């Protein structure tokens, strides 16, 4: 605009000079007036152009200031982002370390649990053997007592019969009829003795059956107690694992204030929960492992497979036996 105004001014001066040279003296004054007016108009335009240039310079300086402030803010944001990235890396490393420590602790806990279960089973077996030996001892003592009682009873009967026989021999010479009666009495007593022996044999059989039933019921009771102890132990283990998971979540929430990090951790937690679920029913958590292929499933699904004819792993179709199924406490 300034250059254009100057060009206009030069043109106006040129026009004025041309007018001065070309025009006559009569129209010279009018032309001079018009030239002066054109010069005033050009000066006004020049002043307006200079004012606009000053405004543009002020705007340029304000824009430069804004650029400097924005660059400073961008540098501070970049520094904050680098600090956040370093914090995220440290959190990830600490999380990996915690995972490795938890895996080691879980391995140690599983080994201790297996050792404790073995000790409990051995103790139960020893108790069962002790109870069986005590039962056998009591049975033998009762049988010995019964045999002694029956021997005493038979001895008493034999003594009575001998007395009766002596009395009969004494009176045999006098009374033949009494002798026949005594012989009949003797036969009757022998029949009764045989009946008593038969009844004692039946009583012994019924006693042995009842003792076997009691022994079986005790064995079933001991097995139920063992299963109850296992279930209580598994429930306690699950409660402890749940409490540990809650504590970890609370620590991670306290450490990470940003909502994006919490959402990522929640997503990872959902993925880990899906990993811990059984791949057959997708509902229950993994409880047992097949030692042939080391695949994890829930106990009911594995029990269904073991009850079938073809025992094969649902994950890799490897055949296994019921002894290959072991409990796992995750």
From TrEMBL:
GO CC entries: HULC complex; nucleus
Subcellular locations according to the entry: Nucleus
Principal EC category: transferase
Catalytic activity annotation: S-ubiquitinyl-[E2 ubiquitin-conjugating enzyme]-L-cysteine + [acceptor protein]-L-lysine = [E2 ubiquitin-conjugating enzyme]-L-cysteine + N(6)-ubiquitinyl-[acceptor protein]-L-lysine
GO biological process, alphabetically ordered: chromatin organization; protein ubiquitination; response to stress
EC number: 2.3.2.27
Domain named RING-type: residues: 278-316
Coiled coil: 39-87, 158-192, 221-282
Listed Pfam families: zf-C3HC4
Cleaved signal peptide residues: none
CDD domains for the chain: RING-HC_Bre1-like
Main localization (coarse): nucleus
Record-level Gene Ontology MF annotations: ubiquitin protein ligase activity; zinc ion binding
Gene3D superfamilies, per database record: Zinc/RING finger domain, C3HC4 (zinc finger)
Cross-referenced SMART domains: RING (SM00184)
Matching InterPro entries: E3_ubiquit_lig_Bre1 (IPR013956), Znf_C3HC4_RING-type (IPR018957), Znf_RING (IPR001841), Znf_RING/FYVE/PHD (IPR013083), Znf_RING_CS (IPR017907)
Keyword terms of this UniProt record: Chromatin regulator, Coiled coil, Metal-binding, Nucleus, Transferase, Ubl conjugation pathway, Zinc, Zinc-finger
Pathway(s) this gene product operates in, as recorded in its UniProt entry: Protein modification; protein ubiquitination
Keyword match Transcription: no
Family note: Belongs to the BRE1 family.
PANTHER family reported in the protein's UniProt record: E3 UBIQUITIN-PROTEIN LIGASE BRE1 (PTHR23163:SF0), RING FINGER PROTEIN-RELATED (PTHR23163)
Protein name: E3 ubiquitin protein ligase
Protein species of origin: Citrus clementina
Taxonomy of the source species: Eukaryota, Viridiplantae, Streptophyta, Embryophyta, Tracheophyta
């Amino acid at each position: 605009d300034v250059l254009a105004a100057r060009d206009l001014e030069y043109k106006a001066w040129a026009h004025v000079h041309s007018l001065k040279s070309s025009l006559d003296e009569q129209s010279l004054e009018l032309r001079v007036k018009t030239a002066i007016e054109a010069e005033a108009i050009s000066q006004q335009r020049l002043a307006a152009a200079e004012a606009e240039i000053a405004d543009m310079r002020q705007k340029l300086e304000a824009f430069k200031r804004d650029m400097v402030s924005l660059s400073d803010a961008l540098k501070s944001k970049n520094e904050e982002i680098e600090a956040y990235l370093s914090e995220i890396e440290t959190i990830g490393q600490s999380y990996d370390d915690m995972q490795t420590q938890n895996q080691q602790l879980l391995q140690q806990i599983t080994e201790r649990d297996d050792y404790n279960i073995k000790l409990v089973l051995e103790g139960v077996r020893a108790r069962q053997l002790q109870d069986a030996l005590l039962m056998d001892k009591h049975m033998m003592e009762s049988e010995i007592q019964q045999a002694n009682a029956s021997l005493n009873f038979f001895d008493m009967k034999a003594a009575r019969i001998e007395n009766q026989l002596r009395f009969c021999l004494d009176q045999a010479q006098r009374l033949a009829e009494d002798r026949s009666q005594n012989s009949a009495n003797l036969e009757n007593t022998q029949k009764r003795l045989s009946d008593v022996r038969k009844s004692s044999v039946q009583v012994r059989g019924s006693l042995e059956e009842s003792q076997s039933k009691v022994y079986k019921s005790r064995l079933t009771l001991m097995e139920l107690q063992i299963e109850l102890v296992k279930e209580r132990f598994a429930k306690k283990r699950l409660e402890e694992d749940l409490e540990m998971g809650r504590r970890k979540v609370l620590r991670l929430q306290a450490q990470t204030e940003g909502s994006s990090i919490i959402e990522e951790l929640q997503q990872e937690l959902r993925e880990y929960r899906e990993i811990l679920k059984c791949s057959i029913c997708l509902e229950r958590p993994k409880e047992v492992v097949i030692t042939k292929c080391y695949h994890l499933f829930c106990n009911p699904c594995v029990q269904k497979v073991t009850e079938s004819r073809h025992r094969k792993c649902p994950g890799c179709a490897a055949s296994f036996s019921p002894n290959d199924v072991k409990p796992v406490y995750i």
